[in-house]
Design a protein that fits this description.
By secondary structure, this protein is mainly alpha-helical. Helices cover 79% and strands 0% of the residues. α15 packs antiparallel against α16. It is globular.
Length: 512
């Protein structure tokens, strides 16, 4: 027991030290932010009242944004369902093929949707096709990883029995494996659909269609009343999608009953929505694509600029990666501390229903704003630099972590808490001994997941002057410096792999 306390204290001290060093490295200054916070309130005040007359202009790019999200999510998820059994270690596939596909998945997972969109615009031209393809690749990478991990966690005896009876591996997979993983698969796909709406809303920044270009344009021109109208419509769209996803998720998990006819109707409607959205996607524009350009791009990634890769000064890759990690560390920790009280206020188990609803609406409002927009706004408060990246990721972390924390709170077994309280135990002790042991694994797992997400999002925040590796990567790609871009991409892949390994180890420690 004493050893466990010492170990816990040492881990807490190490995390605190890393946080403080990262805060110093990223020039975090609370006093500076407070002194300039009036700029932030001025911007927010200028958004209201919004320009309602601008709503008509928003509808078309908003529909494009949703269409890209739906098409990309559906396509990526379906491809993942085909690729996952090849990656699963317990499906007895050829080891070489399995590890090659896993490597491809790991590489694709290393890049945020915005970087993938920039690559697809080079190959397929500007427009919604490139955006949909980027979302599809992003979804495919994430869903394949989650799905093959789900397959590895189930028993394959029914699958093996069907295969041995001559059903064939494909038919056995459809009949025995897919029904087992379906609830988790569909829940993950619905969650990614919500996430992809926010991703799609900024792809227009690199010419991949959607509402992003319009949003960036109005922020750049300081037409904040129009920005306010865009954000309100985006919020309403996110609310509708999250509500539908929530209902479908309950049906998938068996929390809400639905008859066979209802499920068939849902499938028909989902297929119709997919077809409608896909038809609305503009065809690719290959007029500016040449084999020479594609060859130069591939050679740049195969032969990266190792001199830039190995540089250790402030202009080198190591410094940029360290800055990206520090931004993610501080942003994640600050977001977690802010999300916890907001989550408590949003839990109907702990506060009255009306107060919880108000808190949840606030959380949804925070989550509906794309992280890139926060970056464009915060840079007008704290100026260019890593501190802007920290503020951006902190606010974005609040949205996702609050939702995860509320789910953990709603799953609490309150009987131990009530038992201790009935014996006159102080409320602080009740929380410490009856609530925190249940919450701790879920909270720490959520924070690790958000840190993993923040590493990728921090890699593009440099586009708005918020520090990190993003700006050099995009500038290199825009200037066709593919060797430099290849070196940065290699560094990003290695960084994400290290974070994945560390996160997996920490999750095992948490589960013990």
């Amino acid at each position: 027991m004493k050893y466990h306390r010492i170990k816990t204290a040492a881990a807490a001290a190490a995390v605190t030290m890393v946080f403080l060093l990262s805060a110093v490295f990223t020039d975090c200054s609370l006093t500076s932010f407070i002194s300039r916070s009036s700029h932030l309130t001025d911007i927010v005040c200028k958004m209201f009242p919004p320009d309602t007359g601008f709503a008509k202009r928003i509808i078309s790019p908003l529909i494009d944004t949703i269409s890209m999200s739906v098409t990309g999510t559906f396509s990526g998820a379906l491809l993942a369902l085909l690729a996952a059994p090849i990656c699963a270690g317990n499906m007895k596939n050829t080891a070489g093929i399995r590890w090659a596909l896993r490597l491809i998945i790991q590489i694709l997972r290393s890049f945020p949707a915005l970087i993938l969109a920039l690559l697809t615009t080079f190959l397929f031209g500007l427009g919604t096709f490139s955006g949909s393809l980027a979302i599809g690749i992003f979804t495919f990478a994430v869903m394949t990883r989650l799905t093959y991990e789900d397959i590895e966690a189930i028993t394959l005896k029914p699958y093996e029995a069907l295969a041995s009876m001559g059903a064939g591996r494909g038919r056995a997979y459809i009949r025995a494996v897919i029904p087992e993983i379906a609830p988790s698969f569909l829940s993950n796909a619905l969650y990614l659909l919500e996430t992809n709406v926010r991703h799609s809303s900024i792809l227009g920044y690199v010419g991949a269609g959607g509402i992003g270009l319009l949003l960036n344009e109005k922020i750049s021109w300081t037409e904040y009343d129009k920005v306010g109208m865009i954000l309100i419509m985006l919020f309403l769209a996110v609310c509708i999608i999250e509500t539908v996803s929530s209902v479908l998720g309950k049906i998938v998990r068996g929390e809400m009953r639905a008859g066979k006819t209802t499920k068939q109707a849902i499938l028909i409607i989902a297929a119709a929505v997919f077809v409608f959205c896909t038809i609305g996607i503009a065809p690719p524009d290959m007029s500016r694509t040449s084999l020479k350009a594609v060859r130069a791009m591939l050679m740049g990634f195969v032969q990266p600029d190792m001199e830039f890769f190995l540089r250790s000064d402030s202009g080198g890759l190591a410094y940029l990666i360290l800055e990206t990690v520090c931004i993610s560390v501080v942003g994640t920790v600050l977001g977690a501390f802010a999300a916890l009280p907001l989550s408590i206020l949003g839990s109907e188990k702990l506060v009255p229903g009306p107060a919880a609803v108000i808190s949840r609406i606030l959380i949804m409002m925070i989550r509906s704003v794309p992280f890139f927009v926060y970056g464009l706004i915060f840079i007008r408060v704290s100026g260019p630099g890593a501190f802007t990246g920290v503020l951006t990721l902190a606010v974005c972390s609040i949205g996702l972590l609050s939702k995860r924390f509320i789910q953990a709170l709603e799953a609490l077994d309150m009987r131990p808490f009530k038992a201790l309280a009935s014996m006159g135990t102080p409320i602080s002790s009740c929380i410490r001994y009856a609530v925190m042991p249940q919450l701790k694994p879920a909270l720490l797992s959520s924070v690790l997941y958000r840190f993993d997400v923040n590493i990728r999002e921090a890699s593009v925040l440099g586009l708005v002057g918020a520090g990190g590796i993003g700006a050099p990567l995009v500038f290199a790609m825009n200037h066709y410096s593919w060797n430099t871009a290849g070196a940065i991409c290699l560094g990003l892949v290695i960084l994400v792999w290290i974070i994945d390994v560390a996160s997996a180890y920490l999750r095992k420690c948490i589960a013990r």
